[in-house]
Amino acid sequence: MTISKLAPPLLAAVLLVSGGLAAPLSAQVLTAPGGVTIEESYATALIRDTLAAISQANRTGNYTVLRDIAAPSFAATNDPAALGAFFSNLRSAGPDLLPALALEPEILRFETTPDSRQLRLVGYVPAYPEHISFDLTFEQVQAAWRVNGMSVGGFAPIDRTERQAPAPGPAPTPAPAPVPGQDAAPPNADGGDQAPDPQAE
């Protein structure tokens, strides 16, 4: 489910599974395309705080606190009853969000709006038996970041060995120079220079 005041974000579970996993951002400071930075530890705290609020709301059936800690623009358009309906599938089918409080999230994307007043964090928590996907947006309200959009789901755990880059093969044989008057064959026309697909096997 997706609840957002921004343009509808991609559901993280779909992004991760169908689009392939990007390499997690591993620096201590995350940098958005526009140059805005945020400490990775603070981004992790935002993610955990939001997932904890969703987890508690799902367990109790009371979404008032989740609504109250969100940005005013979000709270104004999402009452507790509406939030309960939005999260009904997650509440009944899982995954359990509690492991997100103990495990380090893999942050795959960090973005901000041009005015730097909203930010977006996309990634997953490597929990078992299901990984927890998240796509969260936050709005700056009186110098604090408050959630104003959220998408949470689950997907089958990733086998990290399947995502290892293949060992480099021999250097490709240089193509012969084209004969004057003839068109050169386009690159990869026969697949000879095509990079191997790690998912092909």
Strands side by side in the biggest sheet: 1-7-6-5-4
Largest sheet: 5 strands, antiparallel
Instruction: Give the % helix.
Output: 25-40%
Give the strand content. 15-25%
SS field, number of helical segments: 6
Poorly predicted runs: 1-20, 162-201
Q: What is the rounded Rg?
A: 22 Å
Write down the overall geometry. globular
On the 0 to 100 scale, the average pLDDT is 74
First CA to last CA: what distance? Answer: 32 Å
Secondary-structure element order, N to C: EHEEHHHHHEEEE
Kindly describe this structure.
Mean pLDDT is 74; it is low at 1-20 and 162-201. This protein starts with a strand and ends in a 46-residue tail after the last strand. The chain is built from six helices and seven strands. It has a domain at 39-117. Helix content is 25%, strand content 23%. A hairpin with a 2-residue loop joins strand 6 and strand 7. The chain has helices spanning 12-18, 40-60, 64-69, 72-75, 80-86, 88-93; strands spanning 2-4, 29-31, 37-39, 106-112, 118-125, 131-141, 144-155.
